Amino acid sequence: MKINCFIPFQSADQVKATITSLRESPLVEQIFLLNDNPNREKTEGCEIINIDSLRSTSTIKKIAERADTGYTLIYTKQADLRMGMFALDRMLQIAEDSGAGLVYSDHYQVTNGEKKNSPVIAYQKGSLRDDFNFGSVLVYKSENLKAAVAKMENDYKFAGIYDLRLKVSQEAELVHINEYLYTEIENDNRKSGEKIFDYVDPKNRDMQIEMEKACTDHLKKIGGYLAPDFKEINFNETGFEYEASVIIPVRNRIRTIADAIGSVLSQKTDFRFNLIVVDNYSTDGTTEAIDKFADERLIHLIPDNRELGIGGCWNAGVHHPKCGKFAIQLDSDDVYSDENTLQKIVDAFYRQNCAMVVGTYMLTDFDMKMIPPGIIDHKEWTPDNGRNNALRINGLGAPRAFYTPVLRDIKVPNTSYGEDYALGLNFSRKYQIGRIYDVLYLCRRWDDNSDASLDIVKMNAHNTYKDRIRTWELEARIALNCTNRRT
Questions:
Q1: Which are the contacts of 482, defined by CB distance < 8 A and separation ≥ 6?
Q2: pTM above 0.90?
Q3: Which residues face 107 on adjacent strands?
Q4: CATH assignment of 244-480?
Q5: Using CA atoms in the order 200, 202, 208, 210, what is the torsion angle rounded to 10 degrees?
């Protein structure tokens, strides 16, 4: 078994340590330097490949042309790489034993001089997001890499390496090695809560369009694509005393709950609405703060079940007999942007004939002053392809609102992370999701937010669960398409 290695090239000094580390293995046949500046000096013993960017289709095709050994290593960072003892032996051994099209592994990261464990997670059928973390060392079986490149029909500037991964996954497994096989330098020191909005940053829009195209084509190949045919909604369901209910699940939010409640009770509408606060056994004074509001529209619900996450609290509110025809979300940290939010949301249901509505929000600090990246509008959503692209991205936006009869039928997963995303995928399988691009919601980012600053173990748990959600949804869509073809 031999392997050719492809690494980004900026200067001889930049690649020196990485080349030295790779050459310690007798398995390495050749090292190619991926160079996006033809004026750079050459490095002895390495062939330079001039490229436009590391992630383009053109670069992937140039790699495939030189993938003449059994395996091909692509390194995706420009910082120093140190392979562990016999690491390449191990990666190729597991690739051979498993028949994998791609293997990747846990590793170490050096951040600000400190070395830390950086475990990654197993790839699933639903691991469709383009920011899935494989680490920086990707070892492809060259046969699968070449076959994938032969099927590439689009010339991407940004999505080439993503397209490669998707096409390889159509023919072979992508295998995670639960062993720490190399050390990489990490230069992105932002907290998890700062990174999660990269995909909605307007400056990345061209890249996102390409990623959506690659993912949509992949879904068509594997039978998971849904055409823009939606089930009509009849809003004549009777038996609702209120047109709408705002539901706030809360536990120990004494600093914010009064603001959230106040923003609901100040809403002006031409219909009757109420507020259901599901108090999940708060111990910090939140319960008493809720009881201070003397308003008949406020229902303070303490559920009998003590095993509820945020999703379970939503179920308690939605199945309350006083829940309105539309159930509208507000987190206990946040507030509506003005007094017209509920009216805009309910109007959108009727105007767009949808079972779910998603609005636009603005990120703020605790004092409700805007912070970067500011307005999160999820304009990547399109009526025709939004439900397919939803399998690639990690969220749909906020605030979210639901047609209660459908939500009661589907029910909310009893978790405290990802439950809203699971609902969005499930709703979009059959129904149109309406969008509002006015800012309806001020989302306060502070230390107690669920995703403000997560350690790697928690991040991996969250990402694994969302990938599971995508896998289940993808399998359901494939089965739905099979059923429709038979009928």
A1: 223
A2: yes
A3: 118
A4: 3.90.550.10
A5: 170
Query: Is the domain defined by 3-189 classed in CATH 3.50.50.60?
Result: no
Residue 108 carries which side chain, given as an amino acid letter? Answer: Y
- Read off the tokens for 172: 């072979």
Please give the Cα distance from 168 to 72 (Å, whole number). 13
Separation of alpha carbons 403 and 357, rounded Å: 9
End-to-end CA distance of the chain: 49
Q: Assess whether the region 3-189 and the region 244-480 belong to the same CATH fold.
A: yes
Position 379 confidence tier, pLDDT thresholds 50, 70, 90: confident
Q: Which H/E stretch holds residue 58? A: helix 57-65
- Residue 292 contacts by C-beta under 8 Å, 6 or more apart in sequence? 258
Which tens digits make up the pLDDT trace of 218-248?
999 999 999 999 999 999 888 999 999 999 9
Q: In the structure, what pLDDT confidence band is assigned to residue 487 with cuts at 50, 70 and 90?
A: confident
Q: Is the dihedral of CA 132, 134, 135, 137 positive or negative?
A: negative
Residue with tokens 């230069």: 187
- Which pLDDT score is estimated for 410? 97
Residue 423 belongs to what H/E stretch? helix 419-430
DSSP helix/strand/coil, 455: coil
Q: Is the pLDDT of residue 1 over 90?
A: no
CB proximity list for 445: less than 8 A, separation 6 or greater: 193, 363, 364, 365, 371, 452
Per-residue model confidence as pLDDT tens digits over 135-175: 999 999 999 999 999 999 999 999 999 999 999 999 999 99
Token look-up 């059994």 returns: 70
Report domain extents, the chain.
Answer: 3-189, 244-480
* Secondary structure letter of residue 42 according to DSSP: P
**Gap between the Cα atoms of 453 and 89, Å rounded:** 36
